Amino acid sequence: MSPIFELLATRWPEISVALWQHIYLSMGSVAFGILISVPLGIWLSSRDKTARMVLGVFGAVQTIPSLAFLGFVLPVLGIGTLPAMTVLFIYSVLPILRNTYTAIKEVNPALLEAGTGMGMTARELLFMVKLPMALPVIMSGIKISTVYIISWTTFSALIGAGGLGDLIYGGMNVYDLGLIVAGTIPAALLAILAGSILGRLERAVKPRGLR
């Protein structure tokens, strides 16, 4: 057996608990990000001035190092799952919001004119024309956000939220390479798996004529 697989098998009880915590933190944060970003992106698509301001704010937030951000929320939210998911949620917003806004804005005007000529209401245009055409780009934003958040979730261990970061930082503290590898490999595989699944979904939702 490969030393790496032997290591993972030996550490599996610890890895399985940390992996579940990692999935819960990262996927939960991205789910909240989708719930906020997609409706907000749609709303901003008809409000260019407000959109520039909102995207600028989230863009500025994205430049704040994650460790510094954790330091900002600790005095308010304490330690544990809540502050970790709050920070991860905020980081998840920009790629989804930007892609949603851009995708809705760039829907072919000819399609919208055709829909309007057929008597479609604004709601029908949104759900029957704009969103189907924009969905592949929105999915691309969700994929980018998910992969990033899975990686950044390792920082959650620093404030007692758990996840695979527990193994990585625990290994660094005691100079145990095995612990570091036991945390790093599952995190990398999880990011690859999530990216692959969401990439397939992105291709699946693309309108037939655009494939």
UniProtKB/TrEMBL annotation:
Transmembrane annotation, as ranges: 20-42, 54-73, 79-97, 133-159, 179-201
Domain ABC transmembrane type-1 intervals: 19-198
Residues of the signal peptide: none
Domain of life: Bacteria
Record's GO cellular component terms: plasma membrane
rRNA-binding in keyword set: no
GO terms, biological process: glycine betaine transport; transmembrane transport
Membrane topology, from the record: Multi-pass membrane protein
Compartments (UniProt record): Cell membrane; Membrane
Keywords: Membrane, Transmembrane, Transmembrane helix, Transport
SUPFAM superfamilies: MetI-like (SSF161098)
Family per similarity comment: Belongs to the binding-protein-dependent transport system permease family.
Protein name as catalogued: Osmotically activated L-carnitine/choline ABC transporter
Species the sequence originates in: Desulfocucumis palustris
